[in-house]
Amino acid sequence: MSAPRIKAAILGTGNIGTDLMFKILKNSGHLELTLFAGIDAKSDGIARAKNLGVNTSSQGLDAVLDDPEIKIVYDATSARAHLDHAPKLKDAGKMAIDLTPAAVGPYVVPSVNMDVHLNVPNVNLITCGGQATIPMVYAMQRVTPLDYAEIVSTVASCSAGPGTRQNIDEFTFTTACGLEKVGGARRGKAIIILNPANPPVLMRNTIYAIPSGEFDEVRLTESIEQMVVAVQAYVPGYKLKGTPLFEDVNTSLGTRRGVTILLEVAGAGDYLPSYAGNLDIMTAAAWQIGQAVAAQRLAHLKSSE
Q1: Choosing from 35, 123, 128, 279, which is the catalytic residue?
Q2: Secondary structure letter of residue 194 according to DSSP
């Protein structure tokens, strides 16, 4: 007899939804993917799901709401669409794991604050830039307060589909808020660059921070390296490009010791190419959160028997 699992659905059959489907099927763990739904019956994702034996629908949200057994819904559509989906999913008693920058629910980064948000009706995965850089900001902040954190995420232009391009404004705003709300910086700023280079470049991120005062550079470096290992547990292609850089900078409050971190994210190649680390880190984070939510629900069910 197979172990019980929590039934889940993916809403959105584009690149992100499809890559997430492959991740869940590769290691379903506590999840059972019972539906892959979108609005384009001819999408590549729908075709691949059918070939893999996954139930599909082109009726979008309606198909998800029609199945009362689905408890977890991954929304991989768009920020605008999720604003409409969120209250309907909540009313239906389904938890939403939001892969758009709609920011309806609390911001969640698995390596930072996942455990405190397993019982809410909606969690937001911020953005790819947020998932990549907020762990580094948090790693610094737990050693010393940060007055400012600025991140620049560079991704291959061909890995940014229509949804990403339509959400550029939401990306910068939501990522900056995540640097503050989750990372702990007093002020955050985010920039995204779509690099048209051919062959495509891997996702690269630069994190620049100004601590509030003096700090121990060794302790800060150790905290950063520990966080890299924590993220690699679910994103193996996450790595530093050298050790953190420290230099004096002139600010309005006088000379401060600034910190610069360079990191790279390579995708796992489940469905998307390895250069699409920006998309892979989103689906990997979504998979990680879904597993944690499902494990907690199964433990609760077992304890109530």
Answers
A1: 128
A2: E
Residues 134 and 92 in one domain: no
Contact 131, 207 (CB under 8 A): no
How many domains does the chain divide into?
Answer: 2
Whether residues 139 and 84 fall in one domain: no
Q: Give CA–CA dist 247/217, Å, rounded.
A: 11
pLDDT digits (tens, 9 = 90+) for 91-141: 999 999 999 988 899 999 999 999 999 999 999 999 999 999 999 999 999
Do 96 and 141 belong to one domain?
Answer: no
Separation between Cα atoms, residue 142 and residue 270, nearest integer Å: 33
| Active site (annotated) includes residue 128 | yes
The CATH number linked to 225 is 3.30.360.10
Residue 46's alpha-carbon distances to 11, 75, 162, 204, in angstroms, are: 11, 15, 18, 30
